[in-house]
Amino acid sequence: MNSSKKSQAPQPKLKRAIGVFSGSNILVGIMIGSGIFYIGSYVLQRSGMSMGLALMAWLLGGLITLLGSLCLAELGAMNPATGGIYIYLSDAYSPIVGYMFNFQSMIIGGPGSVAAIAIALPIAFRTLLPISDLWVKIIATSLIIIFTIINVLGVEVGKIVQNSFNVLKVLPLILIIILGIFWGRYIPNFTMNTRISTLSPVAIIKMVSFAIIASLWAYEGWTNLNTVAGEMKNPQKNLPRALLFSVGFTTIVYVLFNLAIYRTLSFGHIQSAINNGQLYLGTDVAKHFLGTSGNVLVAISMALAMISALNGMILAFARYYYAAAKDGLLWRVFAHVHPKFKTPDFSLWMQMLFSIILAWSRNLDQLTSLVVFSGAIFNMLTVLAVPLMRVRKPHVIRPYKVWGYPWTIIIATISFLIILSNNFFDDPVTSFIGLGIPLIGGIVYWIFKYYYHPINTN
């Protein structure tokens, strides 16, 4: 009798506790990380040291990200379920395609990103404190454990942490932007230099495209809000709003931050710093206005940026495990929801384990290269899922539709193809690994499909 009642007891469900502000903060926290302080140097280098082309690359990178987020907004409002891209690819193509994405997210995308941020945080403080490689690993491990516990305690706890750190993180950035733009003494030269002016239009487009790829790493993470759509209040309306606001806000911050650098530092200083490997130009801006205390301000801002990114990634990525297990394509325990905290606790613990393993076994370059390439493949497939779903399910209610359709789809697809082709020719080994991991996921899919029974989600 008692066992019968237990078997019929309803399973706890994820709690809807995320609104527009909290949802926007999750994405802003993930996107605005340590990259804001050094990616601008790479963008400027790849733009032929042209400030005008560099700012154009930041704007175009934000536009491409915005186009992708518009597609996610339509798919998310149409099907506001926890799981994000995994759900959309399964519906548009086949469950095996969705699972291949999910597998690379579980093995590389999620844990790799978490590990990279956790490692980058103590490294950022090496300018102030002597931190050995061993202690970098120890601190990174501690951070992963602490923020996993925070997110196991409930999405509301994780949300509060995310909101608090984002507000504290953005304030120093805004200070640097205001000081640089309004009190900087240099007028940026937006005209093309002599070397660039001699290039053909095709060569210039190729150069700017290469710079956009660097900027897109700074925007990485824009797909992650959809993974928690099942925990959003009124997701049909709030999901598109949060996506548009967060990507738009991030683009503005990136462009203004780099403009503040150009206003504060002379071109000669910028060129010399980059040539000498000093990529953190934001530090020089802070030191220019605030003296030696500027170093401390930048270090604090970087720490807050990376902590909020780390928390947002841990919150979002664990939902991939949960969604796959709900479909019977992982062991049932991955779909377990904590009876008190209403969070996918086992998925969070396993993500923590994989992240720690990667933090101890790989370096930052190896982690980020795999994440970018494999992510671009599935981002492009997600964009193409919008027209596919309109053809396959024309009568499904769409509370939000992509603006500028079909040009939005065409431009975004071409952009992702450029990213993939550049990475493939520049780093074929990483590209083949990025392709191989999803293919292994396809094999794992068939194993679960034929040897394990799907769990009952009713």
Automatic annotation (TrEMBL):
<feature type="transmembrane region" description="Helical">
    <location>
        <begin position="134"/>
        <end position="155"/>
    </location>
</feature>
<keyword id="KW-0472">Membrane</keyword>
<feature type="transmembrane region" description="Helical">
    <location>
        <begin position="167"/>
        <end position="187"/>
    </location>
</feature>
<feature type="transmembrane region" description="Helical">
    <location>
        <begin position="296"/>
        <end position="322"/>
    </location>
</feature>
<feature type="transmembrane region" description="Helical">
    <location>
        <begin position="343"/>
        <end position="361"/>
    </location>
</feature>
<feature type="transmembrane region" description="Helical">
    <location>
        <begin position="432"/>
        <end position="452"/>
    </location>
</feature>
<dbReference type="GO" id="GO:0015179">
    <property type="term" value="F:L-amino acid transmembrane transporter activity"/>
</dbReference>
<feature type="transmembrane region" description="Helical">
    <location>
        <begin position="20"/>
        <end position="44"/>
    </location>
</feature>
<feature type="transmembrane region" description="Helical">
    <location>
        <begin position="239"/>
        <end position="262"/>
    </location>
</feature>
<keyword id="KW-0812">Transmembrane</keyword>
<dbReference type="Pfam" id="PF13520">
    <property type="entry name" value="AA_permease_2"/>
</dbReference>
<feature type="transmembrane region" description="Helical">
    <location>
        <begin position="367"/>
        <end position="390"/>
    </location>
</feature>
<protein>
    <submittedName>
        <fullName>Serine threonine exchanger SteT domain protein</fullName>
    </submittedName>
</protein>
<feature type="transmembrane region" description="Helical">
    <location>
        <begin position="108"/>
        <end position="128"/>
    </location>
</feature>
<keyword id="KW-1133">Transmembrane helix</keyword>
<dbReference type="GO" id="GO:0016020">
    <property type="term" value="C:membrane"/>
</dbReference>
<dbReference type="InterPro" id="IPR002293">
    <property type="entry name" value="AA/rel_permease1"/>
</dbReference>
<feature type="transmembrane region" description="Helical">
    <location>
        <begin position="199"/>
        <end position="219"/>
    </location>
</feature>
<dbReference type="InterPro" id="IPR050598">
    <property type="entry name" value="AminoAcid_Transporter"/>
</dbReference>
<feature type="transmembrane region" description="Helical">
    <location>
        <begin position="56"/>
        <end position="77"/>
    </location>
</feature>
<feature type="transmembrane region" description="Helical">
    <location>
        <begin position="402"/>
        <end position="420"/>
    </location>
</feature>
